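ok posting inputs for the N-(iminomethyl)-L-glutamic acid job
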Amino acid sequence: MPTKTLIGPFTQLLPMSGLPVRGALKDAAITVIDQGGILISEGQILKVATFKNLLPEADEVQRIDQEVVGIPGLVDAHTHICFGGSRARDYALRNSGKTYLEIAKSGGGIWDTVLKTREATEAALVQGVVARSNKHLKLGVTTLEVKSGYGISVEEELKMLRAIKTAHAQTAADLIPTCLAAHIPPKDQPNSPGQYLQELSEKLLPQVKAEKLANRIDAFVEESAFSPKEIEPYFKTASAMGFDITVHADQFSTGGSAIAVKYNAISADHLEASATKEIELLAKSATIATALPGASLGLGCEFAPARKLLDAGAALAIASDHNPGSAPMGNLLAQASILGAFEKLSNAEVLAGITFRAAAALNLKDRGTLAKGKKADIVAFPTGNYQEITYHQGQLQPCAVWKNGIKVL
Ligand code: NIG
Ligand code: FE
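and the output
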């Protein structure tokens, strides 16, 4: 018989289970188990109840001797942590008043990172992803989505996706790869954006499948990247091949969210420019709306209309967008807490957005709550009151993290 391990007691345990994926959430809806325990076996949760009630069933106990609040391991559903170089220059230029387009034209922007990422060896990319993943893990993030998208050619995108796969084996965090070859059109090819996308459909996507490098694809639908019309054939092909679709949508101009909904995207991410029409559309769809406050903080612009999205009935996930350009901070809890303060989100909404709603944005059903059968991904914060978690805006950091039942912090 496999060993049953009891972890606890947690002064407060928030399983975050039994809550809806869509719509507004009041804190009163959260179940708080005082002096809670989690019974686990072989990396999975068997039971969640009071520590005292679970004690007779346990073969062994991992006793916690301090006040802690336990919540599900955090899920960061949108990152670009595979990259070379730095864009500190872009940040300084933006803050001195230069626009995104001016910076891109003067050698900065996404293309600058493409050149630096192409220069990097696959091994160097692996090292970067592992180091950044481990930093996220220390901050309680047990699952991270990681995009390619700085290769912008078939071979360079494959290099990135292979690096992400190798990195996954070298960190305790789970990395969920996404092919973002449709990030921007290549600047070094005479081909039109449409021809580039066709090349991706014909050469890259079959190889991504063959090597099992990703089962998700993403595209940046924006005036400076791909238009809705350009991206449609690519989404059709990817969808027919069985890829899940996610979209960088409505960041500076609208159009992306409508295309996301049309192609049944799992999530539409960014949404800073979304207005009433887009909010209504997302609320009526099955597509998860993912806010990326780290990009708003990095670019110094509006947050996505998180409150309006929730009130309209949309599902709201919150992710870090950790990338060298628009979101260099890479602290999911800090960013989600700050979004909560600006957008008037309850603790329940913030925590849902970085746990089970974020898992839904990655189409993952095996994590995001503390419930029977889920992965034993748990994060403990050194406090006796869960309200302290968002209150400290990221400065209250985990004192313990379990990934698949193994204590990694
Ligand atoms: O999510 N918006 C497009 N892509 C990224 C930015 C990547 C970059 O600037 O390097 C984003 O913000
Ligand atoms: Fe992004």
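notes: The pocket of N-(iminomethyl)-L-glutamic acid (ligand 1) is lined by residues 80, 110, 113, 220, 248, 251, 295, 321, 323-327 (CB under 6 Å). The CA atoms of residues 291 and 318 lie 5 Å apart.
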